[in-house]
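About this split. The held-out portion is used to measure sequence recovery: a designer receives only the structure tokens and must propose an amino acid at every position. Recovery is the fraction of positions where the proposal matches the reference. Here is one held-out target exactly as it appears in the evaluation file.
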């Protein structure tokens, strides 16, 4: 009976995969049908109270609108406004001064700047904004979107100033620094693969690596070392941000030092005439980057400075929407949420760039109108996730996997996180859905709860790569709405590779620890025994 429930609980997910990848159905239509299937199953099979089902769906839809859809609209509004004011042309010109090589620009924007956006804001900004910029630089939309989705998988754990990791730490009671460090250890090898996959995707094959290995290693190491050190010894708030800033600086410096002609195949078309144009003054550069600089400054202030963060965070409202649990409340942060901060930054930046109030309103309205289907997609997926979670469908999926795998559950642990990331499109939501179950399972099989909870967070990032709303965000930013199934078919193979690698690292924990020991031995001038940085390999076996 447990297996039957497992298959039935998976039915909405299976339908969604088939609808997108086989039937080539637009994302918003497939997701609406998914909600209907989930609702019918929850009531007919799991005997979920119809009123509870409807309020669960409502809670998911409202949670999708605020903050997820809000931050997506905010990110796209920022980008569209920069197009309207002409600032994006100046940004393109500055980027062209770094390199005219599409591969270098992909590392700078999709890898480094994308990780920066994930660390600062998350919620789709790390896909939408870098993809929009790269396409504006003349790159082909489909490879750009797939590349951005792939490289945005691992930074999820430390996205939005560490929200996914800090959230699950609060829920499970696990030490946040240890959990952050364990997550970094599991993700280390996959992180090392990302820039290589990015160049492979953008450059359309192994030929793209010619003359790029040194640049890839510079981009990788300059991000990975500070990310790992901050995650292991400080906590989850800053690894993405610090690593991204270091990587951006390193890429720019190394690009200036590179010599030789860029192959015509990889020459950014939008930069062909950049060399013949005059360079921008410092004032012009600051004005062009104003919205993005303000996003960085305001998010840092509202996230890390207590006397600013605390009063703004207090401006919130909580509502009892789901009626099946009297303690269940949905909280809306009205000011201190990434979407609001990004919109404020965009408006101020737009005014600095000379945009009128009418222009601001017009661009914002057009942004919302053009992304209605994306909003519907995300609302539908979150409604599905809430119904599955409250009805018991999601726990049934996890329970069967635990029963079927036993002591080998650590290999499956990232897969569960991946399923959550696929369904919810959110690292935080996946941590909330499956984190406690992972911790309880770890205790039951004699494993380290922190290790399995970290593997769940890692899996959530992998699942985001192929989540309908993540794909919808990428499609919207690239003008590929309606081609979600094509994007999914391109991205899913990378997802499979990452899930297998993460599973092996989680199961063979000594192998994961050995990799960490090697890195620490190479880069840290410490006298201590390396064992202090890892764990007893027998604790998880």
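Reference sequence for scoring:
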């Amino acid at each position: 009976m447990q297996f039957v429930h497992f298959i039935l609980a998976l039915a909405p997910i299976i339908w969604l995969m088939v609808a997108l990848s086989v039937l080539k159905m637009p994302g918003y239509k497939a997701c609406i049908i998914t909600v209907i299937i989930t609702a019918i199953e929850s009531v007919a099979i799991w005997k979920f109270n119809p009123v509870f089902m409807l309020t669960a769906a409502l809670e998911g839809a409202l949670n999708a609108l605020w903050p997820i859809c809000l931050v997506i609209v905010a990110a796209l509004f920022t980008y569209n406004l920069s197009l309207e004011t002409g600032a994006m042309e100046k940004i393109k010109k500055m980027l062209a001064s770094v390199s005219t090589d599409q591969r270098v620009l992909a590392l700078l924007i999709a890898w480094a700047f994308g990780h920066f956006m994930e660390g600062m804001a998350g919620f789709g900004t790390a896909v939408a904004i870098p993809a929009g910029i790269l396409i504006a630089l003349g790159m082909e939309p489909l490879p750009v979107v797939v590349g951005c989705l792939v490289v945005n998988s691992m930074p999820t754990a430390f996205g939005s100033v560490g929200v996914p990791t800090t959230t699950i730490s609060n829920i499970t009671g696990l030490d946040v620094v240890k959990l952050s460090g364990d997550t970094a250890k599991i993700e280390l090898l996959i992180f090392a693969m990302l820039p290589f996959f990015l160049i492979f995707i953008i450059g359309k094959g192994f030929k793209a690596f010619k003359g790029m290995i040194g640049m890839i290693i510079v981009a990788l190491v300059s991000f990975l070392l500070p990310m790992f050190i901050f995650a292991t010894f400080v906590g989850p708030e800053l690894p993405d941000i610090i690593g991204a800033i270091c990587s951006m600086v390193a890429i720019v410096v190394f690009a200036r030092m590179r010599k030789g002609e860029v192959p015509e195949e990889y020459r950014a078309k939008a930069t062909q005439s950049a060399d013949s144009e005059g360079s921008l003054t410092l004032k012009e550069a600051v004005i062009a980057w104003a919205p993005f600089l303000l996003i960085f400054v305001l998010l840092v202030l509202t996230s890390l400075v207590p006397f600013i963060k605390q009063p703004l965070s207090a401006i919130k409202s909580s509502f009892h929407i789901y009626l099946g649990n009297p303690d269940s409340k949905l909280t809306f942060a009205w000011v201190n949420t990434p979407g609001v901060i990004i919109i404020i930054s965009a408006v101020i930046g737009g005014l600095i760039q000379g945009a009128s109030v009418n222009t601001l309103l017009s661009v914002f309205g057009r942004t919302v109108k053009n992304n209605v289907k994306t909003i519907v997609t995300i609302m539908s997926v979150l409604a599905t996730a809430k119904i599955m979670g409250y009805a018991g469908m999601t726990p049934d999926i996890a329970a069967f996997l635990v029963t079927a795998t036993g002591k080998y559950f650590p290999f499956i642990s990232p897969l569960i996180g991946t399923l959550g990331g696929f369904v919810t499109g959110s690292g935080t939501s996946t941590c909330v859905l499956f984190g406690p179950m992972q911790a309880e399972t770890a205790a039951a099989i004699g494993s380290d709860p922190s290790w399995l909870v970290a593997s769940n967070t890692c899996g959530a990032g992998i699942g985001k790569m192929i989540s309908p709303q993540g794909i919808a965000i990428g499609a919207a930013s690239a003008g590929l709405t309606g081609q979600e199934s094509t994007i999914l078919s391109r991205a899913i193979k990378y997802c499979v590779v990452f899930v297998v690698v993460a599973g092996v690292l989680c199961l063979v924990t000594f192998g994961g620890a050995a990799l960490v020991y090697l890195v620490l031995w190479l880069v840290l001038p410490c006298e201590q025994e390396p064992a202090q940085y890892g764990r007893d390999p027998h604790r998880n076996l």
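Annotator remark: Confidence is low (pLDDT under 50) at residues 510-515, 525-541.
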